[in-house]
């Protein structure tokens, strides 16, 4: 059996930082499931379906990446996919505390599934979907932050503002 990883996130929208982790993860694992989650504590700009479409478009040239969505516990999704690993990106020390809490809970739920942390490329260490949305909302240049298809989708969301 090959190595399978799940790369979860809200991806609202996907950025070059996310894409960096997905591409590098695809080199390490035989199969990477990008799992788009609906974070109930956030108000998303894009629907889950729109996010899946955007991610599918920007990862279409990575044959071992599959984009899906899931409702429920991530650990249940990982089990369903027979994944041995949850792949998470870290930007800065500030991400670590939150990620440690999630990882610790996942380990309680299933200690057979490991979490693999990958540091984001330094050029994306400041980048978050929230920042991208804020810049796009005020018509700032986001071309170096997101793929072109995502840039167009963001511009269409804020066209009337």
In short, what is this structure?
Its main location: cytoplasm. The chain has 161 residues and is α/β, with parallel strands linked by helices.
Q: Which stretches are poorly predicted, pLDDT < 50 over at least 5 residues? A: none
Structural class, from helix and strand content?
alpha/beta
> Share of helix among residues?
40-55%
Shape: globular
β-strand amount:
15-25%
CATH names the topology as Rossmann fold
What's the mean pLDDT score? 92
Distance between the termini: 50 Å
- What top-tier CATH class fits best? Alpha Beta
| Total helical segments | 6
Find the count of extended strands (DSSP E, 2+ residues): 5
Strand order of the largest sheet: 3-2-1-4-5
Cα Rg:
15 Å
Total discrete domains: 1
CATH superfamily annotation = HUPs
Major sheet size, sense and barrel closure = 5 strands, parallel
Strand and helix order: EHEHEHEHEHH
Q: If you had to describe this structure to a student in words, what would you say it looks like?
A:
Helices cover 42% and strands 18% of the residues. The protein is α/β, with parallel strands linked by helices. The protein has a single domain, classed as HUPs (Rossmann fold). The protein has a five-stranded parallel β-sheet, with helices on both faces. Strand 1 (4-9), helix 1 (16-28) and strand 2 form a beta-alpha-beta unit. It is globular, with a radius of gyration of 15 Å. The relative contact order is 0.20. Keywords: ATP-binding, Coenzyme A biosynthesis, Cytoplasm, Magnesium, Nucleotide-binding, Nucleotidyltransferase, Transferase.
């Amino acid at each position: 059996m090959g190595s399978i990883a799940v790369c979860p996130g809200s991806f609202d929208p996907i950025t070059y930082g996310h894409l960096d982790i997905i591409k590098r993860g695809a080199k390490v694992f035989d199969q990477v499931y990008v799992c788009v989650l609906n974070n109930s504590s956030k108000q998303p700009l894009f629907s889950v379906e729109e996010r899946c479409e955007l991610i599918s478009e920007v990862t279409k040239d990575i044959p071992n990446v599959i984009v899906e969505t899931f409702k429920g516990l991530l650990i249940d999704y990982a089990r369903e996919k027979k994944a041995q690993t949850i792949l998470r990106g870290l930007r800065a020390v500030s991400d670590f505390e939150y990620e440690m809490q999630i990882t610790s809970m996942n380990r309680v739920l299933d200690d057979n599934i490991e979490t693999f942390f990958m540091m984001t490329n330094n050029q994306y260490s400041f980048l978050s979907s929230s920042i991208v949305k804020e810049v796009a909302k005020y018509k700032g240049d986001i071309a170096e932050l997101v793929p072109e298809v995502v840039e167009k989708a963001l511009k269409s969301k804020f066209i009337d503002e």
